[in-house]
Specification:
The protein is α/β, with parallel strands linked by helices. Helix content is 46%, strand content 14%.
Amino acid sequence: MTRDRNTPQKVVWRARIVLLAGEGMGAVDVGREVGVSVLTVRRWRRRYRDMGVEGLLKDESRPPRRKPLSAAAINKVVDLTLHAKPPAATHWSVRSMAKASGLSPSSVQRIWKAHGLKPHLTRTFKLSRDPLFEQKVADVVGLYLDPPERALVLSVDEKSQIQALDRTQPGLPMKKGRAGTMTHDYKRHGTTTLLAALDVASGKVIGECMNRHRHQEFLRFLRTIDRGTPKNLDLHLVCDNYATHKHPKVKAWLARHTRCHLHFTPTSASWLNQVERFFGLITEDAIRRGVFHSVAELEQCINRYLDNHNADPKPFVWTATTSKILDKVAKAKQALESQH
């Protein structure tokens, strides 16, 4: 066995233990020669004595080092996690649960992982209470999935109070093994408001920065949209329920410009307005980590982003149908009612 090249190495050193012991060598010397402990030498000598050569070829399963958790201990952790809160805290941590259950933190982690429990995480939600929710969803989703002929569908909204923030100290650049740094505190140099209209079909964005976001600014932006789109096409604008969008002067302007039609999303349903996704992109890509010494510098950054985006626009692909949205909302309401 020791001379055969095909013998696994673990079997070779077990056989060497037996051979050296057969030559009269003591356990300490055998262990030093083979490179194992004295206890290992004695164990494999016993295995050979009791089972012969066959005993050197088989691995016996070892008992676990720790005693497995009982079902009662596991159920206690799961029940506390789901139906109780720790003293003076809103949620369980690994250590607070370990203290309450009498288990080790690693045992609590294994139980939570096995049952898919994550007490440290929470997700936000908002269900619309708009009495015309179904009609408005059907109207907006219909524009996305089946737009009218000879018309543009534009998703319109304001991203207000964009702050021109300057860091109090310059950060360090990114390098291998270290992320870039920036100070947590900042200097404010004013704000601007971005009014944007996303062409749902092409992905192009008409954008304009303004100091405020009253009905006067919204009217100015409507005129910008009117000038920047082909005159032979109707305009269907998806907006939220902000008061400036329903101002009497806005209604009067729309009455004179009959090709413009406003479609309102349900209250508390900004996720239905596709331009919100664009606002998320520009925040993540250009604004959040930016350093701006003035509002003018911030607006230049926004305009550069708009130009770059419109040079190679890509539309968002809307796939949710009205029925899917209503079914999901109905399930959410049912779940909330069952809990309360």
